[in-house]
Design a protein that fits this description.
With 475 residues, this protein is of the alpha+beta class. 43% of the residues lie in helices and 11% in strands. Among the domains are: 153 residues, DnaJ domain (Helix Hairpins); 54 residues, no CATH class; 110 residues, Roll (Nuclear Transport Factor 2, Chain: A), CATH 3.10.450.
């Protein structure tokens, strides 16, 4: 590329030998001699092609391939403007614009082109529509200077712009009195719902003590008959919330046992103390009242006697009363402690989780990319097989370099020398950046030869390019 200092045809030959330099050539202005290059690419300048071949020491076929390769890579790349597509400078004359458009159409028109290059015909026609009249050319130049998107030309010849969406702030209506009242009502309902939920949560957190309730029910008739107001303290659950269910079950079991013991004691009740006795008002002795009652000891779960002071009633003269000796309550049977075995840790039998996808790419997106590239690889392989099956078919634009294309052309000639060759469907091996296939071929001739054709492809710049073609000849 450094030695190519001449016209466009010399640059095309240099690019054919070093195709990786196409990116640098896209940023440079077009060289002189573009009209001769387009004429050679179209195949209509036989005299100019023969003279250039003698001057440069190249064959006419090689010059035509170089001219077409230069046009594909330097003129028809995706970001090229209308001038670049037609091989022009911005100051080109109208006659030059018409001449370049005519040469390109003679090469790319679908009725004349037999290869895949006809896909560029639509871009050439679009560029011609932008520049074919002085009015449209001025409008297009102004759009390029303003960095605006290109305008679309309809069939009537008038210019029209592509409509676009513009963001405009939406104006909210002012709140009405009705909406304000509605919002206040909704806020009040929400506050009431929160209060009800808090109340229900507090009520559900208090667990009644089954032991204290049972003792209160059993001793309520005795307190009414004796006239004493004996308060049995309630016992609250002090265990943790996680053991509350186990504690409740144990309390119910102890309550059943103590109930049976209390019923057995009621058969021989202790002597009761009569306290409602009237005496002469003259004597005011010290009053001492001893009553037999029981309370529950949390430490030993037994019933013990207690001394309770008597309360003198209205109009009553307290006197010294002879109280019966307190009868010690028999110890109540205590249920055996419940021993629960410690939970045995179970081995984790769950399958190991899949490692996260590397480089921020999920497995689903990686599979979709591989599937799309597989389809593109099959399309490129089909183009190569059609090229090998047909002797006079023009080469498709799937080659990594001109040398690979030349080798494939020689291989095709070898296949068709002995007879009619046919290549069967290939067997693929596709990865993210490389692909390969093998296909069997058969030659219908005198000896009916057969063999295997292999091809290697590489993923470059968003498409698959053939990097090698080989043929295994029969022994």
């Amino acid at each position: 590329m450094e030695r190519a200092n001449g016209d466009a045809l010399e640059w095309a030959l240099a690019l054919l030998r070093a195709p990786s330099e196409r990116h640098a050539l896209r940023e440079r202005p077009l060289p002189a001699g573009m009209e001769r290059l387009l004429g050679i690419a179209a195949g209509i300048s036989s005299e100019a092609s023969a003279q250039a071949a003698r001057t440069l020491g190249e064959s006419e076929a090689n010059l035509r391939d170089a001219a077409r390769f230069y046009a594909r890579e330097v003129l028809f790349f995706p970001r090229a403007d209308a001038y670049r597509v037609l091989g022009l400078h911005q100051g080109a004359a109208n006659d030059t614009i018409k001449s370049h458009h005519r040469l390109l159409q003679q090469w790319l028109h679908p009725d004349r082109a037999h290869g895949e290059d006809s896909v560029f015909s639509a871009r050439v026609n679009s560029a011609w529509n932008h520049l074919r009249t002085e009015e449209r050319r001025q409008a297009y130049d102004q759009a390029l200077r303003d960095h605006r998107p290109p305008e679309i030309f309809d069939s009537s010849g008038a210019l029209r712009r592509v409509p676009g969406w513009t963001a405009s702030p939406a104006e909210l209506p002012p709140p009405t009195q009705r909406s304000v009242r509605r919002l206040a009502l909704l806020a009040l309902i929400a506050a009431c719902a929160v209060l009800l939920w808090l109340t229900a949560r507090d009520d559900s957190g208090q667990q009644p003590d089954a032991w204290a309730d049972l003792l209160a029910q059993e001793q309520a008739p005795n307190r009414q008959a004796d006239g004493f107001d004996i308060h049995v303290p309630e016992r609250r659950a002090e265990t943790h919330a996680t053991n509350r269910k186990q504690e409740s079950a144990a309390q119910q079991q102890r309550a059943k046992v103590s109930r049976k013991a209390l019923i057995a004691q009621q058969g021989n009740p202790p002597p009761r103390i009569v306290t409602d006795v009237r005496a002469p008002k003259a004597a005011i002795p010290t009053v001492v009242a001893v009553a037999s009652d029981t309370q529950r000891s949390d430490a030993t779960d037994t019933m013990q006697p207690v001394a309770i002071p008597a309360r003198p009633g209205a109009g009553m003269t307290p006197v010294v009363l002879a109280a019966a000796a307190p009868v010690e309550a028999s110890p109540m049977p205590v249920p055996p402690p419940i021993h629960r075995p410690a939970p045995v840790p179970q081995p984790d039998t769950s399958p190991p989780s899949a490692p996260p996808a590397a480089s921020g790419e999920t497995p689903a997106s990686s599979a979709e990319v591989l599937f799309a590239r597989t389809q593109l690889a099959r399309q490129a392989g089909d183009q190569l097989i059609r090229y090998l099956n047909t002797r006079n078919r023009p080469p498709p634009p799937i080659w990594n370099s001109p040398s690979i294309q030349a080798g494939a052309d020689r291989l095709r000639n070898d296949l068709h020398q002995a007879g009619r060759a046919r290549v069967s469907a290939p067997e693929w091996r596709v990865a993210r950046e490389a692909a390969a296939f093998t296909a069997r071929y058969r030659i219908d001739g005198s000896d009916n030869r057969s063999g295997v054709v292999s091809a290697d492809l590489a993923w470059r710049e968003g498409r698959w390019l053939v990097t090698g073609v080989s043929m295994e000849r029969p022994r």
